[in-house]
Amino acid sequence: MKVDTANDRMAAFLRDNHDKVVGRWSELAMASVRGRTSLEEVRRELEDLCALIVRVLSRADEHAAGELTAALDELSRSRARDGFTPGETALGVFSLKEAVYELVADAADLVPEFLSFSRMVDDLGLRTFEAYSAAREQIIGDQSAAMLELSTPVVRLWEGIIAVPLVGMLDSARTQLVMEKLLDTLVATGADHAVIDITGVPTVDTEVAQHLLKTVSAARLLGAKCIISGIRPQVAQTIVSLGIEFGDIATKASLADALALALHQAGMKVVPL
Amino acid sequence: MDELPIRSGDDVVRVRQSVRNAAADNGLSLVDQTKLVTAASELARNTLVHGGGGMARVEVVKSATGRVGVKLYFTDEGPGIPDIELALTDGWTTGTGLGLGLSGARRLVDEFELTSKPGAGTSAVVVKWSR
Amino acid sequence: MERVPILTIGQTLFVSIQIDLQDESVIRLQEDLAEELAATGAHGVIIDITAVEIVDSFVGRMLTTIGSISRLFDAETVLVGMRPAVAITLTELGLSLRGVRTALNAEKGLEILNGKS
Lengths: 273, 131, 117
Fold this sequence. Notes:
- The structure holds three protein chains of three kinds.
- By secondary structure, chain A is an alpha/beta fold.
- Chain A is built from ten helices and five strands.
- By secondary structure, chain B is α+β, with helices and mostly antiparallel strands.
- Chain B has one domain (2-129): Heat Shock Protein 90 (2-Layer Sandwich).
- A five-stranded mixed β-sheet of chain C has the order 1-2-3-4-5, with helices on both faces.
- In chain C, α1 (23-40) packs parallel to α2 (57-72).
- Chain C is of the alpha/beta class.
- Chain C is built from four helices and five strands.
- Chains in contact: A-C, B-C.
- Chains B and C meet through α1, α2 and α4 of B and α2 and α3 of C.
């Protein structure tokens, strides 16, 4: 039997048995929801999906397929947001097969229709899986970005003196963020001294040194004098052995030393009360 | 897709504006917009000064993963660049003393492709993706 | 062609770049500044680029050149108000503009010229 005819017959079957199909589908889908949503909500979602599936099967209009895809993507996204596994979401879709099978089991002449319908539902289930993955990727990406933001604070040490304590590896993505935050803070606070503390940067190789030099260069274009602090003994030896030159950028062992230098450069000194 | 002639200094300004609009409309951050427009300025100037004039195209593109980006094409029918590798090293300048700015432009974008043959003109294609 | 006006206030020349400059205007500015420095004997030049959204290698080199020219006239140049996005881009381009002093704004620029910094 041609696929089109099979699909037409299936569409008709689904239409005629709409309530039973959606009802049974919802019940079965509830099993994979594990009580996190109500039967009514599930039923509402599946009601819409079922209607779209019927439209696609009967090739009623050219928008049906696009709408079905969009609806599935939205379902995957919302399930992903709610913490469901992709398996749970896909199982929910696959259970439509079971629901329909139970109803056609007695009608032997609908077997070919069911086969092609079953294949279609398989594709739909797979699609939710893919959409789920894409949604999770997006969430992970957003969280990474948020973490990067949080791990790059810029603090005000004193009037006109700000500090950027770097913790963790300094790669080019991080450097971009550091530069942006540092420069924005310079503008916002009107500071003219910046201390970049690298105590928390585990390795300082040629690449990291270049990132630091870039950051200092950018800060200088906004009129700020930079001091690099937190040079540990091991790091100092690595820098020298690699032949890295910091030129005229002041470097200090500790943040405290850097603050003292910055205060001095700013024409201030600390005196006991 | 926008097509712009590059025949004068004013044209270079127009190219900058067109690229800026495309970048801003398609979700590029302010820093990325600035980088892309600056790269466009370098390449447009190169097309005008070294290539004897030419054309720029601005296109919005989508990656396989669904990211949106801005793609720029710069073409001219000038003398071409005899040694591309050399031209892409920092500090290389033409006889007129106006550095090509190509190596700098390359660092500002995500994708950079330069084709040139002496006597057959130059074509530069760059892409900057939104994050 | 747009011509950037140069203001003389006391011993300082002020230039405020407000628009997207065409190459010819950039060259013209350089020439005009050289002439004004020679004519006024000013001690300092403040170039305000707060409104400038793009600084490419051409403009970057003009700024360095202006710094050198000023020094020949025994004047100092301070570039003020560079936007963060522009600074990051220039750094990526490899331009450090070492020939000119920089400051966040015209007020701080003047402090540098008057020797307070």
